[in-house]
Amino acid sequence: MSQLLPYTEKPRVDAADRALILTEAARLFRENGYERTTVRQIANACGLLPGSLHYRYPAKEAILLDMMKVAIEQTIRAVLEATGPIKDPLQKLRAAIQAHIQTLLSGNNIFYVLLFEWRSLSGEAREAMLAERDRYEGYWAALLDTLKVQGYIRPEVDLDMLRLIGLGALNWVATWYREGGRYTKEQIGEMVWTVLMSGVLVIQHDQEGYNP
After folding, report:
1. How far is CA 106 from the centre of its chain?
2. Which alpha helices (H) appear in the chain, and where do they start and end?
């Protein structure tokens, strides 16, 4: 059984080294794929000896797991910061969509790795990553549940399916978005919002505080 960094433990590395290792590893994972990237390549990119990297992360899978933890934490923080001051549930959903898009398309390779390399994890590492993913999806589940309870979502809409399809559509943007291309990140977020308004939301245009 391969050594894994226990998910509840902090890496044996200071903040600066952690940022460097995860940044370089994410770049290599995106360029070469996780399976084709070696620990020696990561160490060389960071200016470390393989043994020094091994001290900080006992296995390549531990680097990937910590990277995904950081990516999910940053996504959660971005969404909470964007939606925290907002009281209106509709505008909170709108802001959450934009925050997710902005974070995902920020250009940071860790988010690409989060989306496309998580299946490389196995065993306890994969279970730990899925638990973190479920924590993030739990925020969206609570947000959608509030909207449905308050009558903003049509009663026949299945919230679990809506969450899965919605997040899947948002994440898929990473496969086709190009910086400086035809659509801005803001336009993409607004299109998702428009589709939601047209498809599943019950909008009362005379509602106090409504701002389309």
Report:
1. 11
2. 15-32, 39-46, 50-56, 60-83, 89-104, 109-116, 123-149, 159-172, 185-199
179 falls within a domain: yes
Indicate whether 162 belongs to any domain.
yes
pLDDT in tens, the chain (212 residues): 334 444 445 567 788 899 999 999 999 999 999 999 999 999 999 999 999 999 999 999 999 999 999 999 999 999 999 999 999 999 999 999 999 999 999 999 999 999 999 889 888 888 988 998 999 999 999 999 999 999 999 989 999 999 999 999 999 999 999 999 999 999 999 999 998 888 888 865 334 444 44
Q: Output the domain CATH number for residue 141.
A: 1.10.357.10
Residue 52, amino acid: S
- Establish if 6 belongs to a structural domain: no
Number of domains in the chain: 1
Q: What is the Cα–Cα distance from 110 to 23, expressed in whole angstroms? A: 7
- Cβ–Cβ contacts within 10 Å for residue 198, how many? 9
Q: Cα separation of 26 and 49, whole Å?
A: 18
In this prediction the pTM is 0.84
- Rounded to whole angstroms, how far apart are CA atoms 188 and 105? 11
The angle subtended at Cα 28 by Cα 184 and Cα 25, nearest 5°, is 100
**Which amino acid belongs to residue 97?**
I
Query: Any idea what DSSP says for residue 211?
Result: -
